[in-house]
Amino acid sequence: MKLRLIFIALIVFTSACSEGSNQTLDSQVSNSGFSSQKYLEKVAQKGDPRALFILASSYATNSDSFDDQKKAFHLFEQAANLGNDEAMLQLGLLYQDGSSYIKETDDQKALFWYKKSAEKNNMVALHNVGVAYYDGVGITEDKGKAYQYFQKAAELGFLQSQKIIAYQLHTGTGVNKDLEKSFYWSMKAAEQGDIKSQNNVALNYEKGEGVVRDPIQAMNWFIKSANNGNPEAQYNAALKYYTGNGTDQDLSKSIEYAEKAAMHKNTAAIQLLVDIYSDVKSPKYNTEKENYWKSKL
Asked: Which pLDDT does position 11 carry in this prediction?
């Protein structure tokens, strides 16, 4: 399982991120809780860590020039050295991903700042330290150590970490296999809307892995994931309607979900459509549609 570091945009100015780049710098600063750029600079000069971080973000997000990126970097450093966890995280991201000022990336320096931020329970930093240990980025690979960081981030509600530890617990990767705990974390991620986790929860109910087997609950979660656009769950829902497992048999519904999955080139769904239309005993028997879906295999 290859993981990825979470690279976040500078998110101080949330309205700027959501509304585009037409806002003035002063309006962005105002939306961050400061009345103006001038006032922000005044507070930052007094050594306020949060103000320093926001000022750094203003330089980083409003220009890609070398000078502005240099100012941003040094302001992040000041804020980080004064204990601002967001600035620590951004330094880690800059060393990991680079900028017009930081041209030479450095995995070890990135990890140093991720760890500093993680010590303050920044959940993105916790996740990124976990990824570094999991994949051996800037440090010796240690999937057990990775799990410890992922778990802390997961407990803080970080979706990506919840998904990863569910996988680690399910497969016994870097930690003792524990299907009940795996199900717990898959459910946490599913409740946050992750469509793959929703499908995994359904599979857990279907197979009785980490939870009492319940075909009806399995169907409910397959439908939730399917309706959220997951082709694998769309096929699984189609199959459940086809067999009448955990629901009434309904060939029309089976076809509906199988076609959704087939549009994503899910070969199992296409084969299911072929099987439905080729069954001479079925009310859906249709050689023309059977041949159409066969041509898609």
From this structure: 34
